[in-house]
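Figure caption, in words: inputs first, then the predicted bound structure.
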Amino acid sequence: MTTIITGVAGFLGSHLAKELLAKGKHVVGVDNFSTGTQRNIEPLLAHPQFTFIQYDVSEPTVVDLPELQLATEIYHLASPASPKFYQATPFATIAVNTIGTRNMLELARRTNAKLLYTSTSEIYGDPELHPQPESYRGNVNTWGPRACYDEAKRLGEVYCYEYYRNYGVPVRVARIFNTYSDGLRNDDGRVISNFVTQAITGEDITVYGDGSQTRSFCYVSDNIRALQLMMEKEEAVGQVINVGNAREYPIIEVAHMVKILAESTSRITFHPLPADDPKVRRPVLDKAKELLGWEPEVSLEEGLRRTIAAYRDHLALQRQ
Ligand code: NAD
Ligand code: UDP
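Bound structure (nicotinamide-adenine-dinucleotide present):
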C-alpha cells in the first residue's frame, strides 16, 4: 500500500503528506523543486514511512521508477500554482499538467492505483456565470498570460476523463479554489502570502486594480480533508468536484482585514491589474456536500489569524 504524492515539496503536497503519514500511510513523494522548497519537506524526511524522489514527472521515465511500482493511490499535485511562477515557466507548466498527468495516469493504469488530479477554478476563466458549478464550461482566453495554466489544466482533465472512459482508471478531479495558510512561500506572489508578508514587515500592501475583484478563500486543512475524502469515497470516481469556500470577498476587503488582524502600520497601495485577472470567483459546493459529506469549516478571519501567527514565527526564526 503506497501513496504517491507528486508536488510533495509544494504548499498543498507537503500538508497532505504530513496528514497521510500521521494516519500511518506509506508515502512516496516526488518533486523537482521547481516551485517547492526543501523547507517544506524537511520535517517529513526523518519519517520512516516517507520516501522522497527528486524527479520531473513530465519525464516519461518517471513511470518506470522502482519506488512507484507499488502505488495504490496517486495524488497528482505537481504544477506551479501561482500566476507569478506559472507565467515564468509556461512550457514546464503545460508539460506537467498534460504529459505529466498522462504519465501518472499510465502509472495508475499499470499499478491499478486510484488517481486524484488537482485541477483548478482557473478552468472557469473569467466566469460569465456566478457562482460556478462544475457544469459551467468556463470562459478562458487562449491568447493571454494565464492560458498556459488554464488550458493545460483543462487538457489534464481531458486526459483523466479518457483514461477513465477507455481504461477504467478510477480517477477523480478536484477543482481547487484559492487555498492558503502557512507553507506558502513569502515570495510565492499569491495574494494571501503577499498581504500577510507585507503587513507583518510594514511594507505597502499591494492591491492590484481597485480591489473590487473577488475571490473565495479556503483554509488548507479544509482542502486537505476534501482531497482525502475524494480519494477514499467510491462516489467520487469519475467525478469533477469543486473544493473551496463559498464565502466571497473583494480583494480590497481582504487587504483591510489582514492589516487589522496583523495590527499593521502598512499603507494600502494600488497597482495595475494583471491581464485577464478574473473579476469574480466563488464555488458552488453542493456536489462536494452531497458526494463527500464535506463542507469547509475555517472562516477567513480564523484562517488569517493562524497564517499571520505562523508567518511571524518564520520571520522571527529567519532573523535569529
Ligand atoms: P506549489 O507551487 O506550492 O506546489 C507545486 C509543487 O509541484 C512544487 O513543489 C513544485 O516543485 C512541484 N512541481 C512542479 N512541476 C513539477 C514537475 N514537472 N515534476 C515534479 N514536481 C513538480 O503549488 P500548490 O499551491 O501546492 O498547488 C498544488 C496543486 O494544486 C497544483 O496542481 C495547483 O495547480 C493546484 N491548485 C492549487 C490552488 C491553491 O490555491 N493552492 C488552487 C487551484 C489549484
Ligand atoms: N492580488 C493583489 N495583490 C497581490 C497579489 C494578488 O491584489 O499582491 C490580486 C490578484 O490580482 C487577484 C487576486 O488578488 O485578483 C488573487 O490573486 P492570486 O495570484 O492569489 O490568485 P488568482 O486567483 O489570481 O490565481
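The chain has a mean pLDDT of 97.
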